[in-house]
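It would be a great kindness if you could assist me with a short task in structural biology. Thank you for your consideration; the sequence and its tokens are set out here.
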Amino acid sequence: MALPRIVSSILAIAATITLWEGAAAAESAQYCEANVGSPDNPKEWKHGLLEGYLPSSSLPNSLELLPAPPQSGSAANALDVVEAEATFPLRGTPRWDLAARDADLHFPAAASIYSCALGLPISKEETPRLYTLLHRMLTDAGLATYQAKNHYQRARPFTINNQPICTPEDEQGLRNDGSYPSGHTAAGWAWALVLSEITPERRDQLLARGLEYGRSRSICNVHWFSDIQAGQTIGSAAVAQLHTDPIFRADVRAAALEVKTLRDQGKTPDGTYCSLEIEALKQ
């Protein structure tokens, strides 16, 4: 089903054009605002999450931004089913394994998801401001999905098709967590957008990886195609709102300097892992 994926990709990227314009405006303002970013030890919430940049009142309202999920018997729901079934042959392949790794949003593991696309290692030790930026953004983008998630409580694919998921240890928790929109995708797409802003010369690689990150949720059999599309919309909305926060903007600028420093030093990510990722993404 290549055509729906292409259409989804075009819509997701088109939805972010205004974000880049906002980013340019933020960059031009850097000389007249303080460069005070996140504290060295941001407040930590439960489950290893850091406090986000945005107060709850400023988070995008996913229930207002998104249409209702596809209904049973609709053409959109039929497409969801076809897309889910198209991923079944990937079980046990390197792409299935990569999807399982993409599912882990715990830090420090999650920090390295975009290392290969960025062409640089991302870690608390080598890129502390970028590490904190990604960690805090996860909270904002993830929480922004929950008004719609809690309202619709859409059943996940594996509860309908009775096929396995790539992280069976998460099955019970996922059964009680709404499928629409995809929180993983919202965070992953938000990361891809901001990383492409920080490193425009790697924009195509980063956005492509962001789209594949969303596809990992379908391959894992835990999200429908329309859940992923909706997650990209909320991820874009979260980034737009994040750009209104001066602490976030200061962290973006600091992260860009870290990236430039590592690039000038000739640093590269784990070559063996990146070779495996490239092969997996061909599937």
Notes: Residues 35 and 130 are 15 Å apart (CA to CA). Confidence is low (pLDDT under 50) at residues 1-7, 13-29.
